């Protein structure tokens, strides 16, 4: 019963096989390998963006921080949700890679920005001229940190607000595939057609061993990104092992199939919890994460049985009255089985 995160999962055989195949013989380093050319073509075709530039890094933090460093100077701010991953889980990497830019945190239910809240935050910034932090960029997390998603129309509405202030827009797509499957949008509809300038296109949380793509829909940023990636220590020497993962991930729609399986498992878990008298869903389950509260005694049973998930927030204790509800985050991966889901539900029910 593994629900701690989707990054605890194993690697699908298709990706491992691709790594083994890439391991034969020699290949040019630093992204000059032949597989990277295939990846670049595949992403351009997938996103209907023939002029897009594509770069690979090994971590989502690198993808996000390097992307934002292109869009936001040190004296400016990135507008993002209070619960955005770049705020909660990246140890100030965006601030570091931008050279000191600020994050301006915007409220919104279920970790989603609204155009109204975003407009208010942007309008409040830079009101004192040189004395204030300046307006820099907007970052949208899709799927969000609370397991919800933005539709393509919602992304367009947020991008329109940014455009009113001539601000570029970044999308943190660590779970982009999950959001895409949930909404039925095409990759183009969810990104550049909706006003996204730079996408962090996730692979690791959806089954890859460790690879993320940065997709620049404006190729004018390409050379600067290459310099920043190298200067930041994220240009892989044996790059073919990143390329091989991404090539296999994209082949025959594997990335969407993996995300669909994770989303389906989360839906099964969410529906099962919602049917219980003493459980409550805390956010809509729209991708592959479930947030729910249920009695402490059920958490104790689950953890004693070996179920892995996080109490959310993490500072809650299993010690205390058993009938007190504790909140938790449970994340499904590409290989979460119905049997795992049903086993956890049985424990929570007390069967």
From TrEMBL:
Domain of life of the native organism: Bacteria
Keywords carried by this UniProt record: Lyase, Pyridoxal phosphate
Annotated catalysed reactions: L-allo-threonine = acetaldehyde + glycine; L-threonine = acetaldehyde + glycine
Domain Aromatic amino acid beta-eliminating lyase/threonine aldolase per the UniProt entry, residue ranges: 3-291
SUPFAM superfamilies given in the database record: PLP-dependent transferases
GO biological process per UniProt: L-threonine catabolic process
GO MF term (any one): threonine aldolase activity
Cofactors demanded by this protein: pyridoxal 5'-phosphate
Record family assignment: Belongs to the threonine aldolase family.
Subunit: Homotetramer.
Summary of the function given for this chain in its UniProt record: Catalyzes the cleavage of L-allo-threonine and L-threonine to glycine and acetaldehyde.
The name this protein goes by in its record: L-threonine aldolase
Organism encoding this protein: Rhodovulum kholense
